[in-house]
Amino acid sequence: MAKWKKRIDPMLCKDDDSYLTRKGHIIERKYDGTRVILFKEGTDVHLISRGNIEYTELYPELVEQAQSIKARSCILDGELAFFTPEGYDVFKPIHTSRQTWMNEGLEFQYMVFDILEKNGKDLKMLPLLERKAILSKTVSITENIKLVDFQMDYNGEKYFKQLTEKEHAEGVVVKPKESLYFEGSRTAWGKVKVKKVDTAWVVGYLPGEGARSGYFGSLVLAQKQNGKLIYVGRVGTGFNERQLMELTKILNLIPETKCPFEFYVCHEGKLREATFIQPKLKIRISFQEITPSGKFRGPAFEGIVG
Description:
This protein has 2 domains: 13-193, 2-Layer Sandwich (D-amino Acid Aminotransferase, Chain A, domain 1), CATH 3.30.470; 196-304, CATH 2.40.50.140. The protein has helices spanning 60-65, 98-103, 128-138, 156-166, 241-253, 263-266, and strands spanning 13-15, 25-30, 34-41, 44-49, 73-83, 89-90, 107-118, 121-122, 145-147, 150-151, 171-176, 189-193, 196-207, 216-225, 228-235, 275-287, 289-290, 296-297, 300-304. It is an alpha+beta fold. Strands 3, 4, 5, 6, 7, 8 and 9 form a 7-stranded mixed sheet that branches. Strands 1-12-11-2-10 form a 5-stranded mixed sheet, with helices on one face. The longest helix has 13 residues, at 241-253.
């Protein structure tokens, strides 16, 4: 299959709990999957991730079922998510082998929430509700292709509680009814996710770049298990300007040391660029979940402990 050359830079959401009480918005369930743009031209279908990687060959069912879309060509935006037999979505990387997720009893679905083009006509500058109406007339529900439900007149806090407590949803997405689709933008749509909180030791940091120049880019985190420091990930979000300044001063006062982890961890990806320090600073972290490898997923800084 030839490399697909077209690209959409998906419109993004910003984390903002205030969206739950906003008027003139719609609210949707947030699925814990991988953002995927579906391109259809005739019988040709391509599944492209937000990182512009093609995964079409891993999901032949979607290619087959996309033939039922009522358009000779279109561009759809959605989330490819995996579900348990009980209907709960669980995160699995999009490149997870078929045998792995099948052995775990999971099924995948492409949850479509927007249409950006139809039969050569660009729809991105139409209001959201108009795009939703076109989407519902274009996409046929199949075994692996679903439309994301949305509510217009809602009690956001009540709906969020219902989805996250009863249906174990990751959170919700809230969008202005009239919002246009601006590629790569993070200005109009908001997301509110369930937060779990834990603590971790700061055992290193990576240098900051751009606006973070002079500060740190992210903090290397560890937790103590049986007297050993275990790597649990890095955190680079959740800091305001004052906190960046305060933490940078603290980090500069803590003595440097060698990497406290196993050799292969110390040389994992960006950790090779880290400055390691003694575990003197403990912080609070909010996160989505713990990954199978024991790291925080989606961590954000919440404050210093003590």
